[in-house]
Protein 1
Amino acid sequence: MSATLDRQLRPIYDAIDTGSNKSAIVACNKLLKKQPKNDLIKALKALALVRSQKVEESLYLCDEVLASKPSDEATLSALSHVLRGLGRHLDIIAMYDTAWKQQPSNEDLGAQTFSANARTGNWKAAQQVATKLHKLFKDERYLYWSVFCAILQANDATTQPTLRPVLFKLAHRLLSSAQTPSFYSSDRFYVHLTILKELELWDDATALLSSEIGQTICSTNLTIDELRREIWKAKGSMKEEGERAQQRVKEKDDRNWLEFLSVLDATFWDVSSAPETAEEAKDACLHQITKAVEFFAQIADNDGARDRSGPLALLELEKRAVSHGLSKDPDAIYTLAESYFERFGDKACCFEDLVPYVQFSGDHLSNWIAYLEKHTSTATPEDLRRTINALKLLRYNLTQEQLTPELEAARATQYIRLYLDGMVHGQSLPDTELQPVDDLVVLGAHAFVTLWKTTGDVSFLYRAVVILEFASGKSKQSYVIRLLLIQIYHLLGAPSLALEHYRQLSVKQVQTDTLSYLILSRASTFALSSLGDLTYSTECMEASQIYLSNSTDTAEFVVRAFFAEKYSQIPDFVYLEDRLDNSLQRDLMKMEHVRMRLAHEAINSDLVDMELIELKFIFDRVHHDNRDFEVIPNYQPRDMPSFREQTTPFGKVPGSGWLSSFLKIYIKAFQQASDLDDSVEDKLLIGDRPKPHVESAGTMLLDDRLAQRPRKDFEELTPEETALLEFSTAVAEWLGPHHDYIRPPPAAVLAEAARQTELKIGHQPKGMTLPEGSSNGDARKDIDPPVVQDPPEIVLTFFDDMKARFTAALDGSVLSPELLHIITLTQEAFLIFAVETNRFKPAAVVKTHKLGPLVQSFKEIRAKASTTLTEMSTELEKLAKADSQINRQAEFVDHWKHIEGSEFNSEFISGVAKKVTESRHQVFEGIAKGAAKVSKTHAS
Amino acid sequence: MSVLRPFRATDLFKFNNINLDIWTETYGISFYLSYLARWPDLCCAQEAPSGRMMGYIIGKAEGQNLEWHGHITALTVAPEYRRLSLARKMVDLLEYVSDKGYKGYFVDLYVRCTNAVAISMYERMGYSVYRRVREYYGSLGMGRAGKDEEDAFDMRKPLSRDTGRRSVRANGREFIVSAHDVS
């Protein structure tokens, strides 16, 4: 590149880097006047265009440069960014491939070709490129690239299982041609061991690992050591591993729990390895147990309170002995648990440590209870922690009989009294610290939620909210308290307060994938998008940012890991990318977003076509559920539903079955409303299609898959959602033949799309025609038009049913979100009906196709829907008014008379009551007004 | 008692109980992957037998010649697992790998001058203040404690290769450099 050009281009690069795409385009245009044939300037312009969402123009320019087969690095790099922006990863590969073929001696181009393949997970091609690179440039690194790509291909979901062993053998053969031994670097060593493990070449693996250098690598690299453990386990050398672990624990003071587990596994190997256990094996095992008890006891004695490993290993040993019928002392586990509590009762994690071992019954249980009940002191911080652990353990072992409202209420009072007593220990802490008493309030909230569940009395939820809000004010950084509040506020129909607490958690980056379900699960129940309030839509968009950054960044690090030869990380990076890309939460949010969009925006072909294409992509995905449910604490008794289960709105967590059902509703409705058929869509689609999965339904046609109704999907739907599914199915079946008959032929749709694009960019787009003969033109017009049928029964009764449900729910027997659920789903049915009937709106269509009677029946349905929705809206608004006038303050305060403290006073309590009432009023009124608006908009 | 294991990319799905705590920052994916793609052996996690994550450490190796060393970028333990010496075990491992694996001269870390709890913890682990870095945390603005909040102590602990103990400086707290002088 000439120095002059370099100088002229600099400002363009800077403009693109800083996001000033407009000025970049202007600068490119200026330069292009002088040098109209310069590929690099064109490529940069295409990049600025795609970044300013001018896809069609960018596409045109990009194709022009691609056709000239560029091979200079700057142009290639600019183009690869353009293509990435367009989602055309396969074209990046082809581009580098072509460039490298022009200059085969250019090592960098070869490496770029490899990277392009690796970025896309194109392991087979990447492997071939790496092999070629190795042949040409003799760098051993390329050999390892090729070996590892074979492994990655073997593990890829799109690879046939029968091909796996073949690929591993290929990897093994390639590796054996290496000049330097694999222990040259720990990650090459990792690659080597992975292959040996897969091919079960135990002798080779043992030789490598037992060598001096092998041992050194294991001692400084946890990943390799992990692999070593797996190999030892797979080849059945448990005893040997147990001895090694004992040595590490004894001589190197290693307290990694993995070593203790190795000792435990070795101890029981005699009985657990054989399918039927002979007496001989039992005796041998008993002997091993005695030895292990001695060993662990000695560690426990030496470590004292410094480390929990010894005592916990004794507990685990006894538990396993019991399960094998080899325990000698029936009291042993009890004694161990008690002494564990003695020693570590003041550690916050004591409860979690002991839970697996304290499922007591009979005498042990009564002794355990008596022992724990002694711990009620809050005199010192240590006492306080011990008391909290004792209370958690007591609660864990409660039986159904002990959960009467009276006993549970007494427990709630006890938790709260202790909370108030113990508060002194946190008084001097800075407000960035957690309060040591927090967990007592968490326990209190657990008791109140159980009380609400057993009595149905909502006032217990109010009480839970009051104490949690109080504690949250005292312990501002406690995310645990906020999580409980978020759950309960949703139950109380106060979503804005839940959202406030969620925002205080400052959930960001990847956390939006694992945690946004807290506020976005069935968010359309609470969203006021029908009134133009985009709070929840915006939350969805923001929470979805992570998926964009995943698709741009993660693959880049796969490539970086290849260049840095950190092979051990690559499978995890690939898996991370896949889990985010195909995240269930991502698409649950997308679905919610579509539902909200429909309530807010005009229903036209732009919306319908775009969402149709996206939803169809989603329908083909194999999803990963990354939602973190574990983060919500649970201290409910062992045989009871967890706190999260108790507080899940509608008692049903939307999962893949829910998603699939809603996708079917919307894909079907959009498909009917849209003019795009598959052949048109193919032509209009920019970017690659997702890779087909081996497991996905494969050969089945989309229409057949959309018609499937697996029973398990219904388990995730509420009765109202099931009704909506049935409603929309019936509407689709009823109107399908008319849609198919009237829809313009593909060739006409494409011609129209081409005309639109031409208007936009000034020249004819390429590839916008169908192959000869594929278009059936007006052929079907020769068929008789479908006969107009009466509307299916269910379409008419749906609205009556929903009205009946709504009226029944008005008596106050259900939580307020259920009311909102009924009304928002009725509204949704109305909107789906609007989508389905949009095509039949123009008078000309009705006239041409003689649809008078059909359109007449639409009017009846619309009128019914509109009246129903208006009535519900009126009732809800009335309720909202009445609800806000109830003096809940007095009700709130009344419950706490017996426990008021200096700060925990009636003023504080009525403040909470006021906020709850206001939040509910806001959402009730909003949903009511929104429903009225929707019913007016779509009434005709 | 905890499982000491490598920190992996997929831990990003599991670390909420640690990262929701105010003292732990959640970065973009690129941050974690840039460390794992270069120094996976300097990143490890502690896990409870239940599978819950308890804490993690993220480190790197950097520097030229006599400055070649291991660096602790992030070290964190979830609130409910504090006071169990988990931090020490993870730091021990990072030091061991920096020493035996990377053959570094020392391990270092940066800590806010106001964070007395952390400073004394590191001192108990054998670290000492090597220098004070002006406005290291500058982007966060002035906090309650003024300058102390913005400045960082660079704390170092010599490894076996630092036979002359060059990474220990008696009056490190008074030795002041500007943020531009450190990487």
Note: The CA atoms of residues 11 and 44 of chain B lie 10 Å apart.
Protein 2
Amino acid sequence: MSSRHKHHQTYTTKMASPDESTVNVSHVGRKKKAPSRYWQELQQEKDEAKDAGAGEGNKEPTTEEAEESKTPKQKKRKFKEKQDQNQDKKCISGKSDPFPGKARIPEDRLQKFKRKEKIKKPPHQHYKLRTMIARSEEASEMAQKQAARFDLLLPEEAGFLEGDEGEDTCLVSQEDIANAVDITSGAKHFNLKLSQFGPYRIDYSKTGRHLVIGGRKGHVACIDWQSKHLMCEINVMESVNDVKWLHSESMYAVAQKKWLYVYDSNGIELHCIRKFNDVLRMQFLPYHFLLATASATSFLQYLDVSVGKEVVAINTKTGRLDVMCQNPQNAIIHLGHPNGTVTLWSPNQKEALVKMLCHQGAVRSVAVEKNGTYMVTSGMDKKLKVYDIRAFKPLKSYFLPAGASCLSLSQRGLLSAATGDIVQVYRDVWSTPVTKPYMAHRVRGTVWGLHFCPFEDVLGVGHQDGFTSMLVPGAGEPNFDALDANPFRSAKQRQEWEVKALLEKIQPELISLDPTELGHVDRATFEQKHEDRVKALGFDPLAKVKFIPKFKKKGRSSAGRVEKRKKQVAHEDQRDIIRKAMEDKRKTEEERKNKEQKKTLLSSQKSALDRFKK
Amino acid sequence: MKVKVLSRNPDDYIRETKLDIQRVPRNYDPTLHPFEVAREYTRALNATKLERVFAKPFLASLDGHRDGVNCLAKHTTSLSTLLSGSCDGEVKVWNLSKRECVRTLQAHEGFVRGMVVRFCGTSFFTIGDDKTIKQWKMETPGYGEEEEPLHTILGKTVFTGLDHHQKEGVFATCGQQVDIWDEQRSSPIRSFTWGVDSFSSVSFNPVETELLGSCASDRSIVLYDMRESAPLKKVTNDMDYMDVIMTMRSNTLCWNPMEAYYFTCANEDYNLYTYDMRYLEKPLVVHMDHVSAVLDVDYSPTGQEFVSASFDKTIRIFPKDAGHSREVYHTKRMQHVICIKWSADSKYILSGSDEMNIRLWKANAAEKLGVLAPREREAANYSQKLKEKFQNHPQIRRIARHRHLPKSIYHQTKELRVMKDARRRKEMNVRKHSKPGAVPVVSEKEKHVVTVVK
């Protein structure tokens, strides 16, 4: 409702409105009228003119009328709200703020920053805990709201690709996209023709700036792929099974024929780790500084790269391990096996945490979504399956004619699957049944490595004939957090980040299926401790105290009575004074009367000399 | 075909010149920040460790007295001034910021028993073993002037404690009885006696300024109203389980300056007791940790914590509602700590001990002193909050609670624990073999109060 309309109401109808009450309502009669202002007059005239046109009859039921029927409490609240609004509205120009109050926060954004449900309040006897919980919940709610507000201000928006009427997006070629977008983005689609040492495994660094490719026949190269600057290029003269960046772009690990090696970005060999042999696949857990390796001898090993020590070596007893991925949400390693099972591993347990039978044939590839909600697997049975790994339930199953050899999931949930030399990208594989790919591209050889670039709309494909960088609009997270992974960071910033990250390195013992487990109340330990305490003390110190009734005469000591009694006492003192004053007054009065009487008496007596009066 | 590909302009993300600060765009999306809890926990752990690393509470030692320091007094208006009286009758005035003595005067013969600065800060009172009360000017006498008291009152008996009214020219002393004096008169305007006992300390309530609390040597704490002639209430403390040879009285009493119906008394039975003035039936909290008699106690001006000085050569800081101390200070050279004060800016603690030194401590051992840069302060606040959040995790608690103790105290604590356990075990056995309800469970709080007399 516009303010003009409201003004009109308050003048024509006689309904009380908080807005006007300050101006022309006085408590005692209608004696005084507030000095009129020129803008009010103008407003009134306008309204009257309008009113004449509209007529009285078709007036809508106003909000104020509707309010009459509400309960007093609601009304009060409404009243208050309105007052607040009106305070905003008061402008000298008479114009109203079209968006009064704070901006609304969309519900979905609030939901995005929600950490957990509100806790049930403890009983009244734990009043300190109650206030503590209330306060912390208030703070977290405020943080949630502020974060949601801030979310509206993020500068970048995600990419997209939409076909025209009847045009299929999967038929759009990479060249068309590269030509349609700006030059810098167009330059992100390129091919590296490296037919000598292929096929290639690839890996992007955490910030997405750097790319390492490792050819099967020993060729390893680091590239700042956006500027196409070659950082180093070596041939290790051995077969290369996998390459992986470590925590920053200054170091990478190469799984070679026999041992695991670590090189720096200039291609200088830093370490040859002889405890890690026959490594086939590697995963790096960035927050734990752990390099997890899966070997041909069925060993899953963890290397702490910050101190250079092997944390644990687990014999999985499941044969050759060449399918591996990590869950980025809880740092659990997923391994795929030839018998069709996928197993979940943490460094704290020698046995698998979970074993899932996913396929009827061997598992070819596994990928886990960024939020740790969905897992996508592909197997020799030519099926592509989607699982909810919080509940370990299958969600969707697709049949791919050739079966997918490599899978990769992007930050925004696009799935890329390589079948032979064709790379297909799917959208929303877990929510809606997908019938055709979002994009497709044929590369020049069998795909061996597939990786989405973080924070970019780019998919890197390593294959028999080199490396292809594909443009996949809508793949990357548009807004990065510079304190976490900053693609534009300087050397100094990187150093600072490295120190901070090392300081808050999470210990491998904290890896578990539920990453928030550390924040839960440990009731079991408390109960155990309490039991021990009761045993030691001989009684329960937390037991409810036996109720001892207070001696209280019924009705005598109710709060009202007590107050009344107190007042009586207070009055008693005053009354004494008053009584005394009255007494004094009475006495003086009496005295005065006596005197007067005497006087009159005296005057009434006849003296002997009166007879001489004339 | 409509297409948009992510393309960031580097100018939006890289600073223009080297003189600018780096641009740090943020995105608070929780999915970009995995392992929130584990990372915060690690930060909290690091912060706790660093706190222990930086915990260097000892700041300075003020030496100059030629006998043990018997009493300390805070200046009421100047933060940097401290007064101390020693066992040879000498009073020294210290400048704390320069850490030097600015004035020395021979106030009494024998001990200086008590000292208090008048509320206006222009003069101070001392009492001594020579049965005199003296009032001194705060200013140093000029060149050629003699150091003389403004007034001297000769009392009948030895005085043991002294406190001044918050607003009026009235002060109280204790000895054989509690006396209320007018500054203008040479004889007390009121005397309170209770039996034939002597009193060890007297203290005015900072809010209800007419109220007085005092500790008597017959194990009782007595509260007075200055406007009436009879004491309000009397509590008797008993430590029936301690050695009988020991005296079992409260040594000092200190009112909570913020919630002035609470007071804490330092007891000979190694404990401190916080009472609510209105319910003297049992103490609110029994503060245990000392392994010898507690000699002095003083509240922080925030009223949240207090510090106690003990005969066991340590100082302990207790939160007002916690049964155990959060901090213990000791040095190799510090002997029995006789008097303790918490500075009026709540940042420092001053202790006077037997071996003639006054020591200056930080109230928060790991706190950085001086002006903090905004980022520094923010980081400190953040780590403080994290420590609070994860304080109950066993790893963090273990590190935060760890204190090095002198060997003797460590062993004595252990011994006391063994004794206590044995006593409890015995009681449990007795209870087990007697009629149910015949041996009731008496809580620690109830154990120490014998009776309340009105």
Note: The radius of gyration of chain A is 42 Å.
